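From: lab user (bench 3)
To: helpdesk
Subject: output format question, protein + FE2/S2 (inorganic) cluster

Hello, I'm new to running complex predictions and I'm not sure whether the block I got back is the full result or only part of it. Here's what I submitted:
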Amino acid sequence: MNTKKREKLDKIIKKHEGGHGALLGMLEEIQKANRYKYLPQEELSYVAQKTGTAYSEIYGVATFYSFFSLIPQGDHCISVCRGTACHTKGSKKILDYLKNSYDFEGDDTNDAKLFLTTKDRKLTVRTVACFGQCALAPVVEIDGDIYGNVTVDMLKEKLSEL
Ligand code: FES
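Helpdesk reply: Thanks, we reran it on our side. This is the complete output you should expect:
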């Protein structure tokens, strides 16, 4: 890791250290600061070393919350819920529309654990197990904003705004 990156991480760690929800805040800011909006393993290791936190704990947090990604993401990210309530209300249709509309890299066969990024790195489409907003099914998250009762037409409109 280069000096510039280390300094950036030191600043973020110092800002959050000791505060309420420190680790979550640190990881959120580190991911936002990354060009590809993800948490590289070497940066997680650095946080573990600097804060004296077990790497397994940091990894556990980074993999528990759907907001975090350990894989590079595109400029925009769409997460489609594939939980039971959303599936029943049509999330598969939404996902199929996305899969068929863009030129993605990656394995698109496992809808339950999908993570696809377009070749131009403009868009990532992923699936999550449940947002905990089942009453609003089908639920889709676009760049961190949650939308409920989503239809393909609604999604088309949102995509045109990106
Ligand atoms: S099943 Fe989609 S939000 Fe719960």
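A quick orientation on your result: The chain has two domains: 3-64, 76-161. Let us know if anything else is unclear.
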